[in-house]
C-alpha cells in the first residue's frame, strides 16, 4: 500500500478537494431521501450543513492529532480496501479493525485523508434520520434535538466508530419497540463487534423489555422500584468480585486518555463501590461541572451539559404526566448505563463520547412513547414522519410546555 500521507502535500484546500466526491454522495442522499419522504426544506438545509462539518473539524476546529484514534480507523480502512488486510482477518481482529470493516463496505470511493471517514459517518447520520423519519419515531422536539445536539453533530462528523455504535443502538431499540426479536438480535451482533460494553448494557435490558411485554404495558412504579432495589443489592453483593475489575478498567481508560496510573483515584472499599455506583450516574451525565473546567473545550462541554440536562428534566416532567409507566423503563436504562460508565470513565472528553448515544436514545424514545411534541417554543415544519399527538380530552393530563 502506498504512503497514505501524500495527501498533506496538497495543503489545506487542496487536500479537501479530494473529498468532494464523498461530500456529494452525502448531499445526493439528502436530496433523494428528502424527495421520497417529502422532508421540509429547512430540515434539508440542516442535513446538508451537517454533511459539510467534516471539512471544518480536523485541521480547523482542532489539530488532526487531537483525536488520534481517527488515524487508526483511516489506516485500517485503507488496508482493507487495498487488500493488504484480508476481510476475514479484519472481522476477527480488534474493535478498530472491525469498525473499519463496516466503513470499507460503505458506498464511497476512497478515504484519502484522516477526515474522510467523517463523510462516511455523516452518511450514516443522514440515513438514520430518514429511517427514523419513515418509522414516524420523531416528534417535533426529538427531531430538532437529533438535528441540533452538538455532541452528536461533532462525533457523527469525525472519523471514529461512535456513529456506528449509535446507529446500531438506535436500530436495535426501535426493533425492540416493534417486537422484532430476530431483527433486534441481528443488529446487536455488529454492536458487540464494535463496542461490546454497550452490547452488555443494552442487550439484557432490551431482552427484559420484550420478555415482560414492557413495550405494550410499560413498567409500573412498584416494579420499577423493585428493579432498583434488586440492582442495589446486586451491586452490594458483587462488590468483592467487581471492585478489582472496575479499578482495572478505571486505570486502563485513564491511561489510554493520556493520564498516569498514579494520578487516578481507585475505589477503596465495598461501601465506596456502592456509593459511587449510586452517585456516578448523575455525575457522569453532567460532567465536567463548571468548577472542573480547565480549557475552552471543557467550557463548551459544560455549557452543553447544563442545557441538555435542563431539557432532560423538562421532558421527564412532561413524560411523567403523560405516560409514567412508559417513562420508568427509559429512566432505568439511562440510570443503568450512566452508572456503569460513571464507575470506569474519568476523562471528560471520553465521557462525552460514551454518553451521547444514550442521551439520544432517551430523548428519541421517551418523546415517542410519551407523546412529547413540544418542550420549547415550537419550530415550523411539516408533520409527515412525526409521531402523531393523541387527541386531548377534557381535563386531560397531557400537557406541553
Automatic annotation (TrEMBL):
Coiled-coil stretches noted in the UniProt entry, renumbered to this chain: none
Keyword flag Repeat: no
Recorded superkingdom: Bacteria
Entry keywords, A to Z: Membrane, Transmembrane, Transmembrane helix
Transmembrane domains' residue ranges: 12-33, 45-67, 111-133, 154-176, 196-214, 226-246, 299-320, 327-348
Protein name: EpsG family protein
Record organism: Halomonas piscis
Amino acid at each position: 500500500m502506498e504512503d497514505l500521507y501524500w495527501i498533506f502535500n496538497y495543503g489545506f484546500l487542496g487536500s479537501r478537494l479530494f473529498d468532494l466526491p464523498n461530500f456529494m454522495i452525502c448531499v445526493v442522499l439528502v436530496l433523494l431521501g428528502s424527495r421520497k419522504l417529502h422532508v421540509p426544506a429547512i430540515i434539508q438545509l440542516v442535513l446538508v450543513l451537517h454533511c459539510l462539518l467534516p471539512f471544518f473539524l480536523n485541521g480547523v476546529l482542532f489539530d488532526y492529532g487531537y483525536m488520534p484514534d481517527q488515524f487508526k480507523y483511516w489506516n485500517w480502512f485503507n488496508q482493507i480496501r487495498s487488500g493488504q488486510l484480508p476481510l476475514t482477518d479484519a472481522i476477527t481482529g480488534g474493535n478498530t479493525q472491525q469498525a473499519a470493516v463496516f466503513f470499507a463496505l460503505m458506498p464511497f470511493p476512497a478515504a484519502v485523508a484522516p477526515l474522510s471517514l467523517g463523510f462516511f459517518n455523516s452518511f450514516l447520520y443522514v440515513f438514520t434520520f430518514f429511517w427514523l423519519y419513515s418509522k414516524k419515531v420523531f416528534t417535533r422536539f426529538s427531531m430538532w434535538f437529533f438535528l441540533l445536539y452538538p455532541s452528536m453533530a461533532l462525533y457523527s462528523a469525525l472519523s471514529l466508530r461512535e456513529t456506528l455504535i449509535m446507529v446500531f443502538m438506535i436500530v436495535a431499540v426501535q426493533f425492540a419497540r416493534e417486537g422484532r426479536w430476530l431483527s433486534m438480535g441481528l443488529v446487536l451482533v455488529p454492536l458487540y463487534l464494535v463496542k461490546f460494553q454497550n452490547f452488555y448494557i443494552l442487550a439484557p435490558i432490551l431482552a427484559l423489555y420484550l420478555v415482560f411485554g414492557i413495550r405494550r404495558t410499560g413498567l409500573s412504579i412498584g416494579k420499577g422500584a423493585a428493579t432498583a432495589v434488586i440492582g442495589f443489592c446486586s451491586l452490594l453483593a458483587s462488590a468483592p468480585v467487581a471492585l478489582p475489575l472496575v479499578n482495572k478498567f478505571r486505570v486502563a481508560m485513564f491511561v489510554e486518555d493520556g493520564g498516569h496510573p498514579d494520578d487516578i483515584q481507585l475505589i477503596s472499599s465495598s461501601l465506596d463501590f456502592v456509593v459511587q455506583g449510586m452517585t456516578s450516574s448523575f455525575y457522569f451525565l453532567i460532567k465536567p461541572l463548571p468548577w472542573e473546567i480547565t480549557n475552552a473545550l471543557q467550557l463548551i462541554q459544560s455549557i452543553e451539559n447544563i442545557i441538555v440536562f435542563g431539557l432532560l428534566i423538562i421532558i421527564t416532567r412532561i413524560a411523567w404526566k403523560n405516560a409514567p409507566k412508559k417513562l420508568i423503563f427509559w429512566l432505568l436504562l439511562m440510570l443503568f448505563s450512566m452508572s456503569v460508565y460513571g464507575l470506569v470513565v474519568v476523562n471528560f472528553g471520553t465521557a462525552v463520547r460514551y454518553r451521547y448515544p444514550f442521551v439520544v436514545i432517551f430523548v428519541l424514545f421517551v418523546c415517542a412513547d410519551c407523546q412529547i411534541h413540544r418542550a420549547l417554543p415550537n419550530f415550523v415544519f411539516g408533520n409527515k414522519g412525526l409521531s402523531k399527538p393523541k387527541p386531548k380530552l377534557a381535563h386531560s393530563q397531557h400537557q406541553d410546555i
